[in-house]
Amino acid sequence: MSSDPTPACPTSHTFSQPLFILLTTFLLILILSTIYFLLQITQKLLKIRSDPRNKLVTKEQSKQKNTFDRGVGSERTDVEFGSRELVELKERAFNQVPARRLSISFSFRKQADEKEYEWEIHWKEIHLEEKVGEGSFGEVFRGSWLGTTVAVKTMRNASSNALKMDKFLGEIALTSTLHHPNIVLFYGACVEVPNVCLVMEYLAINLYDLLHTRAKSQIHFFVLHRFACDVARGMKYLHRRAKVIQRDLKSRNIMVDNNFNAKICDFGLSRYMKLDQTMTFCGTPYWTAPEIIRQEAYTEKADVYSYGIVLWELITAQEPYSGMESMEVAYAAAERGLRPTIPTVCPEGYAELMQRCWSDDPADRPDFTEVLEILFVMKKSFENLMTPAMMATHRRKSIQDLGVQYQ
C-alpha cells in the first residue's frame, strides 16, 4: 500500500503577493485621505479669508481710507480690526475684551458725518443744559436732542481710562437692545471720544426721591402697588426676553414719569446671563443679594432679592437699614441674615412676598412671573374693597398732591 504524499510546504512567494496587495491598498487609502483632508482645510481657509468680518486692515491699508484714530490708550497698534456686528460688540464688552479693541469698531468712517449704527448720535446734535446727577463714571445732564428733552449720561476721562471705557461701551451695547414700557427709553449714544455719552428718555423723578424726600405719606397705596407691578414687569422682560441680570436694582434706579409709570434705568453693572456666574462685589449693599456679597455663584434670582428691598421701601417709605454703614450692612446681611424689619401694619400678602424675595437661598425666591401673579391676586382683592370711581379719585388726588401732571 502506498503512503499519502507529503503536502508541499508553502513558499514565501505564496504569502508575499496578498501582503503586497494589502499594503498597497492601505497606502492608497492613506494618500487619498490625506489629500481629502488638505482640500477641506484649504476650503475653510479660503472661506475665512473671503469673509469681510475677518479681514485685517494694516496701517498701510488704513491710509487709503478716510478714517480717524479713536483708540482709548496713548499707544498705537500696527493692526486695526474692521467693523463688527452689534451682537459681537456686546459679546466683547461682556467678556471683558480690552477697551482698545472694543472702541476700534467705532473708528472706521467713510466720511466724518457717517454713522455706522442706527443709534449713533453726533455730539453736535446734543445740547447740555442742567446737571441733574453725577457719579464715579461721570455726570448726568438734562439736555435736548433734535428738539426732544433728554437725559445725557456722560463719561469722565473717556480718552484715558480703558476700563471705564470698556464698561461704558458695554452699557451702550446692552441698553441699545432693550425695548419695554417699563425700561427707560434709549434714544442713542455718541461715541466721539472724548464726548462719549448715552442719550436716554428724560424723567425728572426717581422712586427714591419720591418715597423719601417728596411724598412720604402722600402717595396712595394703589399707586405704590402699580409701581411694584411696573418694576416686576420690567424685570421679567430683562430676565425672560433680554437675558439680562440687572445687578443694581434699587429705588434710585427706578424712574417715574408724569403718569406714574415706573421705569428701570442704569445698566452700567448689568450682565448677560451665564450659568454659575461669579464676580467681585458690586452694586449697593442695602439692595445687594448676599450671594453676590459673598462672591458666590449667582443667577437672576439676585435681582429678586433687590426687588424685595424695593417692596419694603414702597410699604414703609423709609430708607433700608437707616443709621447703619454700608459695609456693616453688607456683612450682616450676608453672614448673619440681617433683613429690614417688616412693619406691624402691612397689606395682606406683602409681608410674605418680601420675605420670600429676600430669602438667603436663591432657590427659595420666586421668579418675576410668579411675583406678578401674586401681585395681580392682591390687586384684585384690593379692588373688591373700593369702587372704580373711588380708585380713580384716589389715584388722581395722589398724583396732583405731588405736583405731577395727570393725564
From TrEMBL:
Q: What class of enzyme is it?
A: transferase
Q: What is its EC number?
A: 2.7.11.1
Pfam families reported in the protein's UniProt record: PK_Tyr_Ser-Thr
Q: What does the entry list as the binding residues for ATP?
A: 153
Protein kinase domain span: 126-377
Alphabetic keyword roster: ATP-binding, Kinase, Membrane, Nucleotide-binding, Serine/threonine-protein kinase, Transferase, Transmembrane, Transmembrane helix
Query: What are the GO MF terms of this UniProt record?
Result: ATP binding; protein serine/threonine kinase activity
The record's catalysed reaction(s) read: L-threonyl-[protein] + ATP = O-phospho-L-threonyl-[protein] + ADP + H(+); L-seryl-[protein] + ATP = O-phospho-L-seryl-[protein] + ADP + H(+)
Q: Which SMART domains match?
A: S_TKc (SM00220)
Q: Where are the transmembrane segments?
A: 20-39
- Could you identify this protein by its name? non-specific serine/threonine protein kinase
From which domain of life does this come? Eukaryota
